[in-house]
Amino acid sequence: MTEKDTPEPAPRKRADARRNEQTLLDAAAAAFVESGVGVPVRDIAARAGVGVGTIYRHFPTRADLIVAVYRHQVEACAEAGPALLAEGPTPHAALTRWIDLFVDFLVTKHGLAEALQSDNAAFESLHTYFIDRLLPVCTELLDAAVDAGEVVSDIEPYELMRGVGNLCVGAEGDPRYHARRMVGLLIRGLRTH
Fold first, then answer.
1. InterPro entries given for it (predicted)?
2. Which label site among 51, 75, 121, 178 has the fewest CB atoms less than 10 Å from its CB?
């Protein structure tokens, strides 16, 4: 391979372009939760304060937008874990706050569920991405809380994430069911006595 054949690195996005993309992703996530993934692109653009063309410049297809929203939500949740642990005041408090963010993410994820369950090839790797990014964060938080003697040691991080996820399923369709309250009971039940 000659120097001429070496591919040029992709240009880095300007800070304002990255901010615009983050604003679009936040607006799309909120719109998906509120109105489903079929929400008109013009509604997302209005919520983000941009033109429709800006959305299509960043995300040429609806599938591109859905994948980007999902990844954006996963990354926000993953990045929050270590920050919450550093903030304290205790590992259990950090775990509790992270689980609360995880529940927020799951609400968005369930808003995307219909699209994610389609046979669109763009969505195939998202579940693996979700587990690969969030399971280590949950493990770190849970291990810290166990090491501090704040929670029982006989629960696996995957079990905890799966349990929280199952408590959130269908919550949006039943006004008498409060998933966040049930998740709170689960988290309190982890405490050592």
1. Homeodomain-like_sf, HTH-type_TetR-like_transc_reg, HTH_TetR, Tet_transcr_reg_TetR-rel_C_sf, TetR_SbtR-like_C
2. 121
- Sequence-separated (6 or more) residues with CB below 8 Å from residue 29: 69, 72, 73, 108, 111
Let me know how long the chain is.
193
* Residues 115, 128 contacting (CB under 8 angstroms): no
Range of the domain at 119: 66-189
Q: Which tens digit of pLDDT belongs to each residue from 48-86?
A: 998 899 899 989 998 899 889 989 989 999 999 999 999
What CATH number did the domain enclosing 89 receive? 1.10.357.10
Burial of residue 98, with CB atoms counted within 10 A of its CB: 0-12 exposed, 13-18 middle, 19 or more buried: buried
Q: pTM here?
A: 0.79
Distance CA 136, CA 13 (A): 28
Residues 52 and 82 occupy one common structural domain: no
Residues 6+ apart with CB under 8 A from 159: none
